[in-house]
């Protein structure tokens, strides 16, 4: 920490999302954003001027600015080497999603984390809004009943021109398709809320876009807790929506938004009839908000409402800075995101091998452990993804 007890931070990769990190750090009086770095020195200098930080020529120069935490905001394929280099320079890392482009890289970072003093946290901002925190707590406590059925949708629209940049639309540039790059936000939240997944039965389809991977993926998922879910990710959906719906023995919990939710985007529909709920063995019951008079009972969801914190970078960075300064563990660790990367890996393995993939199949012997195309040729991938 700096002399006045603030956290000294840096940012690597000075493109689009670095601006969200820069704004979140600037808004937090406990933080000093001191240094930035980019392979393009022009990009680094113009971002440094914007945020009032020093532009550094290398990761070593950045670490020499006595930073304790560095946001890695570079393209996915560069995350692993950049993060390992920063760990070896003695700093902690806030790594943008997707943490890596395969499980092998994720395990390389985990080994570097083990061998060095710093820690790695991953940006999954939708875990950090007040709605997801309430949902996570109430589901874990059983207060909303037991999850039985879930739907997880990332229905977005990207025109052909979106894939014009050379690095887009191909395995080499992106590491994976929209399941890795776009749907992963909703998939991570679904898994965060429902716990251990067990099997994935998926189809990845290339319906319309000029890409090497899918533009639509659908999957059936089972969970250790007994729930089943369907997961759809599409880049062909003009009315865009990001949605998670969880039907429990006590009611329906739902969040519908696009790139970030507030409390108003969440809803809870309790079983309408308490007798029916009781016969399911899990009456969600009624609860009174603290201090509310008798007769002012509300359902458990309403009764748990507190400060409305939207799910954005500021929400996660606020939590992370507070945890680091207080010496508390921060929950969104690299390890906590491995189930999400395992799910993404299983989806591609299932779709490209045409079988149900069990969590236990994801060993280093599986080709998909090292690359999400499973080492298949472009023709083999095309054959599988475009077969009708
Ligand atoms: N959490 C979110 O909601 C969210 C939203 C958008 C993007 N992202 C993620 O943020 C990351 C960056 O995406 P972006 O849209 O800002 O990309 P971008 O192309 O706008 O910016 C990336 C920057 O990194 C620089 N760069 C590339 N390789 C580098 C290296 N090895 N070392 C240093 N700098 C390097 C580039 O010059 C560029 O300035 C990706 O992982 C992406 O998935 C997350």
List keywords for this structure.
388 residues, alpha/beta, Rossmann fold, 2 domains, eight-stranded mixed beta sheet, six-stranded parallel beta sheet, 14 helices, 24% strand, binds nicotinamide-adenine-dinucleotide
Summarize the structure.
Residues 134-254 form the GFO/IDH/MocA-like oxidoreductase domain. The protein is α/β, with parallel strands linked by helices.
Can you give a write-up of this model?
- This protein has 388 residues and is an alpha/beta fold.
- The chain folds into two domains: 7-122, NAD(P)-binding Rossmann-like Domain (Rossmann fold), CATH 3.40.50; 128-310, Dihydrodipicolinate Reductase, domain 2.
- It is 33% helix and 24% strand.
- The protein has helices spanning 18-26, 41-51, 59-63, 79-88, 103-115, 130-141, 171-174, 178-181, 184-194, 274-279, 300-303, 313-326, 338-353, 378-386; strands spanning 7-12, 31-37, 54-56, 69-72, 92-95, 120-122, 147-157, 197-205, 216-223, 228-234, 236-248, 251-257, 266-270, 286-287, 298-299, 357-358.
- An eight-stranded mixed β-sheet has the order 13-12-11-7-10-9-8-16. It has a six-stranded parallel β-sheet with strand order 3-2-1-4-5-6, with helices on both faces.
- Strand 9 and strand 10 (228-234) form a beta hairpin.
- The longest helix has 16 residues, at 338-353.
- Nicotinamide-adenine-dinucleotide (NAD) binds next to loops.
- This is Gfo/Idh/MocA family protein.
- It comes from Kineococcus mangrovi.
- Pfam families: GFO_IDH_MocA, GFO_IDH_MocA_C3.
- Residues 7-122 form the Gfo/Idh/MocA-like oxidoreductase N-terminal domain.
- InterPro entries: Gfo/Idh/MocA-like_OxRdtase_N (IPR000683), Gfo/Idh/MocA_Oxidoreductase (IPR052515), GFO_IDH_MocA-like_dom (IPR055170), NAD(P)-bd_dom_sf (IPR036291).
